[in-house]
Design brief:
Strand order of the largest sheet of chain A: 2-3-4-7-8-9-10-11
Strand content of chain A: 25-35%
Oligomer: heterodimer
Number of strands of chain A: 20
Number of helices of chain B: 11
Distance between the termini of chain B: 24 Å
Distance between the termini of chain A: 21 Å
Shape of chain A: elongated
Radius of gyration of chain A: 24 Å
Shape of chain B: elongated
Number of strands of chain B: 22
Largest sheet of chain A: 8 strands, parallel, barrel
Structural class of chain A: alpha/beta
Strand content of chain B: 25-35%
Amino acid sequence: MTLPPVRKVRPRELKGFLLNPHKGCETFQHFNGDALFVAGSGVCHEVGPTDFPERLFEGVTPGYLPSSVSYCRWFWDAVEPEEGRYDFTAIERAIETAAARGQTLHVRLMPHGSPSQPPLPKWYVAKYPTVERERFNAKYRMAVHDGPEYLAKWGGLITEFARQFDGDPRLECVDMSYLGAWGEGDGECSDAGIDRMTSVYRQAHRKTPVVAMIGGHQMAAGLRSGMGWRCDSCDDLGLWGEPAMGPQGRWNHLYDSYPWSVAKAGAADVWKTAPVVFEPGSTMRKGYECGFDLDFIIRQDLKYHGSLISFKSYEIPEPWREKLLAFCNDLGYRFVLRQFKFDARVKAGEPIEWGAWIENVGVAPIYRQYAFAVRVSQASRVHVQRAPDDVRKWLPGDAVLSGKVTLPDGFRPGSAMIHVALVDLATGVPKVRFASEGADADGWCAMDNIELY
Amino acid sequence: MIMPHKKVRPAELKAPLLNPHKGCATFQRFNGDPLYPTLRWSEEGPTEFPARQFDVTPGYLPTTLSYCRWFWPLFEREEGKIDFTIVEKALATAAERGQTLQVRLMPHGTATQPKVPEWYRKKYKTVERVTHKGYEPCNTPVYDAPEFVDCWGRVITEFGRKFDGDPRLESVDVSFIGPWGEGAGECSEDAIDRMVAIYKAAHPKTPLMTMISGYKMKAGVKAGMGWRLDCFGDLGIFKTPEIPPDQWWNHHFDSYPQQVVGCGAEKAWEHAPITLESCGVPQHWFDGNFDLDFIIQQGLKFHGSVLMPKSAKLPEAWMGRLSQFCNDLGYRFVLRQFKLDARIKAGDPFEWWAWIENVGVAPIYRPYTLAVRATQGSRVFYHHSPADIRAWLPGDACLHGSVSLPREFSAGSVMLHVALVDPATNAPKVRFASGPVDPDGWLPLAAVEIEGKS
């Protein structure tokens, strides 16, 4: 039996959970290894972190899932305590903490909360137009959302935030959030006002993905400018509907809102270029206690081609944990290196031709540029060549790559080893794991030897 | 509490559902015919149509599709005298058996199979050549010669004239190069373009399927055709004993992904069907210890609608998974919710909203119609939604409509049903994966109350 002129490597597919960046479960206002929120403890989970205690748990926090993204959101008064005096210290520390815990940071800045939560900054209420609104049986003040003052002040905050953080590799994405409590859309604003604010977010964030809130013109305007979208009740099968309707007829987001909002906004294909992000309407325990159909919820969210979900850093009901772990695994991209082939023998000075078939068996692409790299090593000599392919274009389905590696002087006749990986553009370090066997401890996937002569 | 709307959320059906234009296909045979007695099949299409023997043929799966292919000499014995009687009989038989018919017309086979018609060989140039490794040389036309384009083009044009748009016809293969028209031959890109244009002009309605790989695929997909492959399941059928088995060439690793990407065919399934013909027959996969889960995953990844396992007995141990696979191919429409005005005044229209989710891997490629049926006593009214159901890709379809009932409908309850129907007959044709459905194929919704004369 002879060796063929082209060597093929077909790594075995990994089926189990794989912790990869930019996808899956998010911690909320916390980081990997932090304690969870405790329901009924009186702590307002809408207030972003300002203290960053030492990691409490070495591995995954008990009751939660492995995570590569932290989601934090802060109210306006915390980041601009006086007009024009921006203070992003907490965000800087959050970004550092996330990075230290193996996470990127998903950020939302919010103008104010509900009546019992932080209001608009005092300086804003004192100086600029606001309106009184009643929500949750209480009165509170909202900005006049389409007024020039709000555009200038909130827009100024967003612009300053982006000036400091846009493109920071530690930043995952930014929510577009400026209407009503938590910026989630419960407030009036003209379409023109929405367009203006959308433009501010877009101009400010040239590199970091921005996600628009689902529903209405805010979603449509966001999508038109290339944003992803998010929804905040991705598990709702009857949290708020009219009880008299019974569970089969009760209004809920998954039946009565999201399909319609996505269709109306023309958002069905947005996931191909920008991320889709989920948050449950309450805690997962609430859904569990309501008897929601978890399989249906998961199926719907995968149907939307989601990449991230925040379980709000509350304990996940134990009977649901395994399914939700699988769900987080199924969200976003998942690249299987099906085959890598290369010239088995190459004459000194001639290029090594290679071809790769990679299948994205996930539900979305990756939204950050990494590089497919081929590494050839021989004793202390190492040469790495990156393919020019844009990995963000690897939608679910096949990616077929080919290239040539020309080795520099110094490689000698004999055997050399080939590895491949998806590497960080700046550092060349493997960052995204293939769902394929064969990765070394350093993240490079061992292919096979090549004979140089 | 009086609610302005009623909502119906039918239960999702998870079990296999026999629906048209998707799933398993019989080959050179029809539902209820015996299978090939061995694992060998015939390339020569049926010329006789015996009576049905079985409900579902033992060893096979339920199907709504038959796939037949015939060689040129059978339907054009003399130049210009084209006789499609056989195709007509096959269409009629398929329809009787609850199937639509996929058709391929083939110029010739291999050395041991039918050649191009004698009249063609006498009059026009043909060549002897080896088309496949290990095969005897066979006689082939010059595929890009004007006379071949003219003569074969005439066949295709005549076929299209007679059958294009026939609802019994499922699809037509574009097949003009090499044995069985499967591509093993040389043809210039110019001639391929001409032939593709002929097929396209002849079939403005019936879907066309181009063969995977090379310029013929690229040209076909560019012209809006679907595509087919003929070695589905190949994880090592073609052995190369001189090298280690893990280095053997196979279609799934070394051809199909590269061809689909290279020909720009990744999105063809969004508007035209993908058909998967088994490599050998599934028993060969079984005997080769191939990874069936991987094969199935690849077929679904390609957004296939049809599996054609050649009417050979399927491995018993794999029947469950193959049945599930056929169920998962193509479209599968779940009626998630139907909402309607609970009460209307006589003479006023009622509004409705429907959320349908396609939980399959492809759309349907035939324009059925979503219809709402209103009944009150002996009065029946059909309302057709203008939605093009071919646009229901995997994911959500959200529809909204308004129905004005005829004056004959009086105060009281009007019962509503919904179905996907043939718009010409109002007969339900495509079953929702939702239920329960009445025996006549209509899915019951709820009653709308008419409040009195306006």
